[in-house]
Amino acid sequence: MRAITNCPSCQTQFVVTEEQLNQHQGKVRCGSCLKVFDATQHMVAPENASGRHTSREDVEEQLRAIEAGEIAETGNEETYDPAQADTITADDQDRYFNKTKKSAKSGNAFAKRLLWLVGLILLLAAIAQSIYFLRTEIAAYYPNTKPYLLLACEKLNCSLALPRKIDFIVIDDSDMQEDPEHLGLVHLTSTLINQAGFSQAYPNIELTLTDINDTPKLRRIFKPIEYLPAHTEVTKGLAAGEEVKIKLAITTPGISVSGYRLLVSY
User: Fold this and answer.
1) How far is CA 160 from CA 148, 169, 239, in A?
2) Residue 177 near residue 187 (C-beta atoms within 8 A)
3) Pick from 18, 53, 187, 260: CA 20 to 30 A from residue 76's CA?
4) Closest by alpha carbon to 201, among 226, 235, 243?
5) Among residues 211, 228, 229, 227, which one has the least CA distance to residue 219?
6) Do 13 and 84 reside in the same domain of the chain?
7) What is the pLDDT of residues 41-81, one digit of tens each?
8) Would strands 243-251 and 185-194 be described as parallel, antiparallel, or unpaired?
9) CA dihedral 180, 183, 184, 185 (to 10 degrees)
10) In a domain, 25, yes or no
11) Is the whole-model pTM more than 0.70?
12) What CA–CA distance (Å, rounded) separates 117 from 121?
């Protein structure tokens, strides 16, 4: 079956076949202006056909000739030119729509690659951020990474501090004795142990002296430089499994001391 459709862009009217309409859900390409449109939405009845050089009788005669397989030459007529209409063949439409599909596939492939690239950048940014904030723990549990982390910190103007896991620092074998020769002077001895599998920063030691009722009478916090032996490299920290002997002398003028509490903190 043949029908007449009207191009909405250039108003050219031409003949289309049912086969052409079924191939692409009614979409055809105008042979005059090359615009693609839905021919089923712009059908024209033969009695309503218009044209500058073609009358309604000519259109009906052309349709009858086309149905009979006799496609006549139409010269320079612009409207209902069967020769021009036949140039919009099924092959032409297939080539056009295949090209459109390829362009769409190419666009989809580019969008997918762009999406993967953005996802990869976000993933790398998240990994870099995690390394930055967990650099101390990473250097502690993976010592081989420490040189690289130090190099990165030089570039980023950051520092790589020693871990401070207070739960792994233990005070053992502590004792406090009054000085027999000096009134109001007591001596505290203890052992500081790092039970972690990595080096840690030296902690502060908090000493609280109490009376017979366990009421705090004197409290003081000693920093590493105050309780460590002379010439100790504090920046290297307390090595894994290392024990450090502590000896402190505290004066208690006019205070009756009968007990003490010893804590470590950062």
Assistant:
1) 11, 20, 16
2) yes
3) 18
4) 235
5) 211
6) yes
7) 988 877 666 543 344 455 455 555 545 544 333 333 344 44
8) antiparallel
9) -40
10) yes
11) no
12) 6
